[in-house]
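Human:
Care to share another protein and its fold?

Assistant:
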Amino acid sequence: MTHTLHRRGDRESLGQDYIVFTMSAKKLNEEGSAERMTKFLGILLKHRPVNYGDMVTGNCYVKSREEIVQNIQSTSIVHGVFTDEEEVVEILKELKEADLGMSVVVSGIHDATETGCRKSGLAKHTVENSLGIFGQYKKLPADEILQLTTMCGHGMVPANLVERVITEIKRGKKSVREGAVELTRPCHCGIYNPIRAERLLGRLVPLVTLDA
């Protein structure tokens, strides 16, 4: 299971949200994988990700590009986030050509990732589907909040942070863009999509009424 799997939202919103990442398999291809993952990140960076990072070091909103690149290790998990399906296709073509010997995971709407694989000349190895949430739904935040929290698969963007950011935007203390960036920073891995977050906040904030 991948931590990028359970993002929630409608098709239009999720259609602008793709994550591409790689990691080594312990005792299989771990040796020398730091160099290969550095090359992997180099390919991603050519395509202007809206966020990227390494689970060892952090994301590009809290760490510099140099820190992230220089600290990639064999235990790293390197991520990039993209908003354009065709950009992901070009990345996959380059990764196929580079033949780094690393497993690559692409998260997105199923038929879009299927099409992307075909266009890039790749065959999928495994498909994982999110089956949604089971349990006491009434204890969950509103779905509009979950769309923002589930972009961090390790739960580092809690509902109360989203609610605080919405309140501050509503009161004019920060812009929608600043709010999206604030939500992006705690997601250590770099899989949070700040562009999607900005759109979701822009849609949500006008609907919120604050207590006097």
In short: The chain has two domains: 11-120, 137-207. Residues 33-46 form the longest helix (14 residues). The two ends are 44 Å apart (CA to CA). The mean pLDDT is 94.
